[in-house]
Inverse folding.
């Protein structure tokens, strides 16, 4: 029973890790050398932590079908954090 639970936990963690790594942030100067094609621009709603903003950008980039994103702007007016990124294939 413990072994089965361990296997299930490992599979769930592996699936979550794969999802997180599906879209990668790249630096703007790498776009040309990687021969990437821009497929859209995304932005976050108001978030309160940088990690939340990054997670929202990754989710939106995945929804667009992108493999990479480049953060083009970030701002922190007051308590909220806002970010914009270009998405590439």
């Amino acid at each position: 029973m413990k072994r089965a639970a361990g296997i299930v936990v490992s599979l769930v963690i592996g699936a979550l890790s794969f999802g997180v790594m599906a879209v990668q942030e790249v630096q703007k100067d790498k776009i040309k050398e990687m021969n990437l094609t821009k497929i859209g621009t995304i932005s976050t709603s108001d978030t309160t932590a940088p990690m939340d903003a990054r997670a929202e950008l990754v989710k939106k980039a995945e929804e667009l079908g992108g493999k990479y994103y480049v953060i083009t702007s970030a701002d922190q007016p007051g308590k909220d954090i806002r970010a914009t990124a270009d998405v590439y294939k």
